[in-house]
Amino acid sequence: MRPAFLLFLPVVLLASACSSLNELQTLLGKTLSDIQATTAPTETATPPGTAATPAPPAPAAPQPPPPSGKPTIATPTLAAQCAVLANANFALKPSQKGDKVAALQQLLSSAGFYRNEVDGVYDAQTRSAVIAVHKALDLPRTPAWRNNDWHALCAYSAPPLPARQDKPDRVEIDLNRQVLYLIKRDKVTAIMPISSGNGKPYQEEAGNWVKAVTPAGDYSILRFYNGWRTSYLGELYRPWYFYNGYAVHGSPNVPPEPASHGCVRVSIWDADYLAHQLQVGMPLYIWKQPDSSKRSSS
């Protein structure tokens, strides 16, 4: 029997936390009138020319609980967005444009998979986020958004990650799913697709033949190079080294499957994002199946 994992949902990105629901419902009002015939949104945007009702004073912030290594539960904004999309059943594909794509981008952003502007263009970053969803949910790793993906994402109870006592800020890399999870204050703040070692033999710098494997283990980030770095195997963009010459680094080529010589590839835009999120000394864990002794029951 597969041991129980610690379950927790992605956190809403701070950049869109205050306005994402209103923006999403405005977009859906233009494109999903048939879908919403039986599902009313929980709140509506202020009509043009109408003064907005002042918000009530914010309650005093509660005292944070003591650190436990356990994640926090789901955000109400994501749950509300999923309620609006309860009957959504349409597909989208790369190169499409419009309000439906913007609604998808907003949902992906709130779920932690998308970190770019909500512009209604199904571009490379949107494709990458969709692939990350399919990887995380163990679905076929295609760049197209399918009809039932709306329900699948909203039903996603979050990644099965091990509890890490006193490690609230960390990186978790799942080699099975080919996904990187960025965790801050025990919340998943970003989920991004990766490409790790492909298992094929290659000739290393000293001339020996070795296997292209990403080493699983518990690490700490050792150093960072802010720019393009050239190695004998190729170009690394903004690499974060965690073990000898192994690094998490940006690459223009991040296929859905393992393809590297052992490093952990992320997209160029995700490398730019990580450059402002990681730091030397931050714990980094790489695994195929977390050690059962470190798992937490749900």
Provide the descriptors you would attach to this structure in a database record.
disordered C terminus; L,D-transpeptidase catalytic domain-like; single chain; Muramoyl-pentapeptide Carboxypeptidase, domain 1; five-stranded mixed sheet; 2 domains; disordered N terminus; alpha+beta; 20% strand; globular; 298 residues
Summarize the structure.
The chain is an alpha+beta fold.
Q: What is the fold's blueprint, element by element?
A:
Elements lengths: L5 E2 L12 H12 L44 H9 L14 H12 L13 H13 L12 H6 L5 E2 L8 E5 L4 E6 L2 E7 L7 E3 L5 E3 L5 E4 L2 E2 L3 E4 L2 E10 L2 E5 L13 E3 L1 H7 L8 E5 L11
Parallel strand pairs: 3-14, 12-13
Antiparallel strand pairs: 1-2, 3-4, 4-5, 6-7, 8-14, 9-11, 10-11, 11-12
Task: Please describe what this structure looks like.
The protein has 298 residues and is α+β, with helices and mostly antiparallel strands. The protein folds into two domains: 6-42 and 73-154, Muramoyl-pentapeptide Carboxypeptidase, domain 1; 161-291, L,D-transpeptidase catalytic domain-like. Helices cover 20% and strands 20% of the residues. It contains six helices and 14 strands. It has helices spanning 20-31, 76-84, 99-110, 124-136, 149-154, 268-274; strands spanning 6-7, 160-161, 170-174, 179-184, 187-193, 201-203, 209-211, 217-220, 223-224, 228-231, 234-243, 246-250, 264-266, 283-287. The strands form four sheets. A five-stranded mixed β-sheet has the order 5-4-3-14-8. Strands 9, 10, 11, 12 and 13 form a five-stranded mixed β-sheet that branches. Helix 1 packs parallel to helix 2. The radius of gyration is 20 Å and the shape is globular.
